[in-house]
Design brief:
Length: about 500
């Protein structure tokens, strides 16, 4: 039995039935990491001893007949911008190289309480600034489908780890699409929950009004399992929602879309999208209709300004959040020659510690917040944000869920757009609006694009606090697309396909 190819649900069933132990399951994933991560580079740090220790404790308790948490013994990977007391947390930046935090993030604490072996920390664009994972200070991650292509970003490491069967589940964070876009590039499932539904305590902040932690998985039910574990109120996060949004696993068991209205966003389909992406999207609409859904068109005219607004709001918040990396409190310190005043030490440290994309966004954000420009840039962007939220409200008055392609193209080649930041910013054209409005979104594979045989995906969006709708609709659509999973390994890069 090839344990790593089982779904998370199947792995749990095997653990509970005694078909295999958590140590065996965890070791199988560690072996898989050792076999293929040399070419994929999904992990920045692997904690084999810690993961096996947790697995052994689960096996001991299970053998003794003790009651265990629902996901006990199931391995998981964690994006390296969530703090962990027993592993380095670098956020993909040299300025935090080797830093081991003194506390766990709330999400990591929940994983530990669930007794899930944490395999390691996954690669990301530095401080989650990017959509390709090429801006990591520790080198890019490759797409398991084609090693010369991007896996998406910023959470390309988490998506590639799950997609290449190095972990059944992973944690990501989504500021403008950083869970959903990598999911689209790697043929995995990724969810951005409602803003505030999952605690951000211990997440190294990028854009505090935009960031949201969420699950990465290989199917909808597995994503729902992890969503249920990490969600919930946290008094340490002032933006945490007070209410329980209900079970996502229960929602994923729904088998009919009778009476459900699905809204196609006019501004996020058709022109500008790769032909193969559009073809798979139309096929998904037909499958939704065949499952009983009513398809309607909705218009969100303010979406045309979403990228411009986002790339003023996000850099402004980032420039503020990254001010803490000043060489004084934690992280690297560079002492220049001559008279090392605090100002010179800080400047030298930030010059050496931050990469080009981080510097670009800090400069842009600081400018947008500066005296004389605040109202023209940051203030205007916030007004556009309000218009986008109103567009969503109007659209959800006509439809229960909204749909669009997750991304305009399939994965492009590493280095292809590295010198053109504006071109890369357009990768997030379909995902950014959800972050600006704080609503939940889910990316689901819907086939392979005709032009290149690479994964295509559809994005589902629901109103704030209606995360369950994503899983109920997503589960039905996924079942209709179940033939996709039979094609996945055929199209993997040979170096990754071997042994899986």
């Amino acid at each position: 039995m090839n344990l790593v190819k089982l779904t998370a649900v199947e792995q749990l069933e095997g653990l509970r039935s005694g078909a295999f132990t958590s140590v065996e399951l965890t070791q199988a994933h560690l072996d898989r990491i050792a076999s293929v991560d040399g070419v994929v580079h999904a992990f920045l740090h692997v904690n084999a001893s810690g993961a096996l220790a947790t697995a052994a404790e689960v096996d001991r308790k299970r053998a003794a007949g003790e009651t265990l948490p629902a996901l006990a013994g199931l391995p998981i990977a964690v994006k390296d911008n969530l703090t962990t007391i027993d592993e380095p947390t670098t956020a993909g930046s040299k300025i935090l190289e080797g830093w081991v935090p003194p506390y766990d993030s709330t999400v990591v604490s929940k994983l530990r309480a669930e007794m899930m072996p944490i395999l390691g920390k996954t690669n990301l664009d530095e401080f989650a600034m990017g959509s390709t994972t090429q801006f990591s200070a520790y080198g890019p991650t490759s797409n398991p489908w084609s090693l010369d292509r991007i896996p998406g970003g910023s959470g390309g490491g988490s998506a590639a780890a799950v997609g290449a069967y190095m972990a059944p589940l992973a944690i990501g964070s989504d500021t403008g699409g950083s869970i959903r876009y990598p999911a689209a590039m790697t043929g995995t499932v990724g969810t951005k929950p409602t803003y505030g539904a999952v605690s951000r305590y211990g997440l190294i902040a990028l854009g505090s009004s935009l960031d949201q932690i969420g699950p990465v998985a290989r199917n909808v039910q597995d994503a729902a399992l992890l969503h249920d574990v990490i969600a919930g109120h946290d008094e340490r996060d002032s933006t945490s929602l007070p209410e329980d949004l209900g079970s996502m696993v229960a929602a994923a068991s729904n088998g009919s879309l009778a009476g459900v209205k699905v809204g196609v966003i006019k501004e996020l389909s058709g022109s500008g999208f790769q032909a193969g992406i559009s073809a798979r999207f139309q096929e998904s609409l037909e499958l939704l209709k065949a499952a009983g859904a009513e398809i309607v068109e909705v218009s969100c005219p303010s979406f045309q300004y979403a990228i411009a607004a986002y790339y003023l709001i996000l850099p402004a918040e980032a420039s503020s959040n990254l001010a803490k990396f000043d060489s004084v409190r934690f992280g690297m310190r560079v002492t220049p020659e001559g008279n090392p005043t605090i100002e010179r030490v800080m400047a030298a440290t930030r010059e050496a510690g931050f990469g080009p994309e981080v510097k670009r966004r800090i400069i842009l954000g600081t400018y947008a917040l500066s005296s004389g420009y605040y109202d023209d840039y940051y203030g205007s962007a916030q007004k556009v944000r309000t218009l986008i939220q109103r567009d969503f409200d109007a659209a959800f008055a006509k439809a229960d869920v909204l749909v669009s392609p997750t991304a305009p193209t399939t994965a492009f080649k590493l280095g292809e757009k590295i010198e053109d930041p504006l071109a890369m910013y357009l990768n997030d054209i379909a995902t950014i609006p959800a972050n600006l409005a704080g609503i939940p979104g889910l990316s689901l594979p819907n086939g392979l694009a005709d032009e290149d045989g690479l994964p295509s995906s559809i994005q589902l969006l629901a109103p704030a606090r209606a995360d369950q709708r994503l899983y109920s609709v997503g589960a039905v659509l996924e079942k209709a697309h179940e033939n996709v999973w039979g094609k996945r390994m055929i199209d993997f890069a040979p170096e990754v396909k071997a042994g899986a």
